[in-house]
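Structure first, sequence second, as always.
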């Protein structure tokens, strides 16, 4: 979705698609985080430079990650134990860390027991050891509860990753889920502007990430953050990329923040972004995948950004040159001709077929919940007419015009964020129809928008849409509005939307039981300094079979 780099963020900020809206019984006390922050700068010396991570959990396996820097390929041993002192090794093997892959190494540990916590480490030929990590396999069979910490939109320049810190200190989750915008690709001084950036939060490289070396350096920079390092050390993760892991508003054939004349072919940049992601993250190379949580749920990890997505529609382009007297007619033509076009795709036919079959199989196996782990908001959001109230006299004309066009679009049934599922209504309806045909109990986890939403999805299920870790939300762009008024007016104008919070940063704590799926939105007190204080929370839930939110 569109960011607005270099915007001052108060009321006069330009309004674009995005800028309006990216348990354990084991003690953690002795599981220390390596001092990664002290290793900032390049080049790194040899050795383990970025800790460890785990992901792609299954009932009897998990993927393990580390980085060992050396000038030549190095064979590492990995060891897995159910004891923190590694008194008994239950799984292990060897894996190569090679400069060809930026010295990152990924191995799959197999032969594990379901629903168990394990410790793991890597050992170099010279005896050097990585930090010790902790991971967990998924359960099999009867499962009473499963808890996930859900994050999105973590822009280092805007502040500290206090949401990660709080989730780690809670030590109450089976899994961490990141829904995308794990980092941001902009050069230093753009989003945030230098005047907005928090001291000490300067990612590397200083330039925009365009080439493979740039993307690798940006991951290396983010992964030195102590709270992100801790998150990866103590929880297995399931992650998806969104646009900023490549470039703003990316789609299969380009991106808003990619200029071929000066930055080369999009296909080359996209391939570099995907390669660096798969090198640096504890992920498989599959574009989409599913994960069974015992008899409780199936998680479906979707790809809605780089492989099947057609170019986003542009409301401003549709209205260009249209005089005010004919704007409504132009919007109605745009709606019928472009917005409702059934060929305008988001996931692609292969992924849609895979998901449709997977939901049927999950329901047929008796699993209660079908959970979509994906990037963008699915519920429809319409711009309320009250958004233009209180505009100051010095508000730029183009802001007034965009707001007026958005309000008018809402009146003819066109939502305002065409980079989200709202820009692909036929594709969304195919997904929801498939969920209904499968008799699924759909729970959609969404990120990208920087704000917190709870939506009901056409009788197919509910959506828990998460606020950002640090990236600014609507409060930063609608300075003439009180956030509580913005939220109330959005709910009133959007039938799918049942609750919203548009002013604070944090994460979601999502819990599944056989009877209920719930989310607690946790809002941190600040991101301008390191803190573990939650200022407020909000909870909503749905009961099995209801496919709508329970009454508060």
């Amino acid at each position: 979705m569109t960011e607005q780099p270099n915007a001052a963020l108060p009321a006069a900020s330009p309004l674009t698609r995005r800028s309006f809206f990216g348990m354990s019984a084991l003690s953690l006390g002795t599981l220390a985080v390596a001092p990664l922050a002290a290793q900032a700068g390049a080049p790194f010396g040899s050795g383990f430079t970025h800790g460890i991570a785990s992901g792609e959990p299954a009932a009897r396996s998990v993927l393990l990650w580390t980085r060992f820097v050396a000038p030549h390929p190095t064979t590492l041993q990995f060891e897995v134990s159910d004891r923190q002192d590694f008194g008994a090794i239950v799984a292990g093997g060897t894996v190569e860390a090679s400069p060809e892959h930026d010295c990152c190494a990924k191995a799959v540990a197999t032969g594990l027991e379901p629903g168990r916590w394990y410790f793991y480490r890597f050992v170099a030929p010279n005896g050097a050891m990585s930090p010790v990590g902790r991971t967990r396999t998924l359960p099999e069979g009867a499962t009473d509860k499963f808890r996930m910490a859900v994050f999105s939109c973590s822009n280092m320049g805007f502040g500290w990753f206090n949401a990660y810190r709080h989730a780690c200190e809670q030590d109450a989750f089976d899994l961490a889920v990141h829904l995308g915008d794990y980092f941001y690709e902009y050069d230093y001084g753009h989003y945030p502007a230098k005047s907005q950036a928090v001291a000490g939060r300067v990612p590397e490289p200083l330039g925009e990430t365009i080439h493979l070396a740039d993307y690798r350096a940006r991951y290396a920079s983010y992964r030195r953050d102590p709270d992100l390092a801790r998150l990866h050390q103590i929880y297995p993760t399931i992650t998806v990329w969104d646009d900023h892991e490549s470039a703003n508003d990316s789609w299969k054939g380009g991106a808003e923040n990619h200029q071929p004349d000066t930055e080369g072919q999009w296909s080359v940049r996209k391939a570099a972004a995907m390669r660096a992601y798969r090198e640096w993250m504890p992920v498989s190379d599959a574009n989409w995948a599913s994960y069974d949580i015992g008899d409780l749920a199936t998680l479906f990890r979707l790809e809605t950004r780089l492989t099947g997505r057609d170019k986003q529609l542009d409301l401003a382009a549709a209205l260009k040159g249209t005089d005010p007297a004919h704007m409504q007619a132009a919007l109605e033509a745009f709606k019928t001709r472009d917005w409702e076009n059934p060929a305008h795709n988001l996931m692609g036919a292969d992924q849609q077929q895979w998901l449709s079959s997977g939901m049927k199989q999950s329901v047929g196996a008796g699993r209660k919940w079908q959970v979509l782990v994906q990037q963008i908001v699915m519920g429809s959001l319409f711009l309320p007419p009250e958004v233009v109230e209180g505009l100051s006299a010095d508000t730029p004309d183009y802001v007034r015009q965009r707001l007026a066009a958005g309000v008018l679009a809402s009146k003819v049934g066109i939502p305002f964020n065409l980079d989200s599922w709202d820009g692909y209504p036929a594709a969304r309806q195919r997904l929801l129809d498939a969920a209904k045909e499968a008799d699924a109990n759909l729970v959609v986890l969404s990120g990208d928008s920087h704000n917190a939403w709870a939506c009901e999805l056409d009788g197919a299920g509910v959506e828990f849409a998460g606020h950002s870790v640090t990236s600014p939300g609507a409060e930063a762009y609608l300075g003439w509005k009180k956030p509580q008024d913005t939220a109330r007016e959005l709910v009133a104008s959007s039938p799918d939307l049942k609750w919203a919070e548009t002013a604070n940063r944090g994460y979601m704590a999502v819990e599944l039981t056989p009877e209920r799926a719930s989310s607690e939105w946790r809002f941190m007190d600040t991101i301008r300094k390191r803190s573990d204080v939650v200022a407020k929370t909000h909870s909503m839930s749905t009961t099995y079979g209801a496919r709508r939110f329970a009454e508060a």
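Margin note: Residues 4-27, 33-44 have pLDDT under 50 and may be disordered.
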